[in-house]
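Record type: monomer structure entry
Structure origin: computed from sequence
Chain ID: A
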Amino acid sequence: MKTEKTFGDTIKTLRGEKNLTLREVSEYLKIDTSMLGKIEKNNRKPTKDLIGKFSKLFNVSEKNLIIEFLSDSVAYQIMDEEDFASEVLKVAEKKVKYLKTIKNLK
């Protein structure tokens, strides 16, 4: 899985590799075709449940799809902060560790 692609790009590529139409995939997922199109264009965020369904349909790792989705979210948040985006990521990684320790203490 190429990590430089967006979640939507990844889903569109996987759908193309299986030669499935938007309609076929949306029927499997039980969502509107337009919603699937918006997900593929990165105009709509999938739920965690949908990510699991994509994983099953395309026989790919759910963990990798979740990483694709979450990394998109982070990237969109910091992409305009070119001068210190890397620093933000480093600090965020430390904060995740800190927040996990606080959560485990409760």
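Annotation 1: The chain has a mean pLDDT of 92.
Annotation 2: The helical segments are 7-17, 22-29, 33-40, 48-58, 62-78, 85-105.
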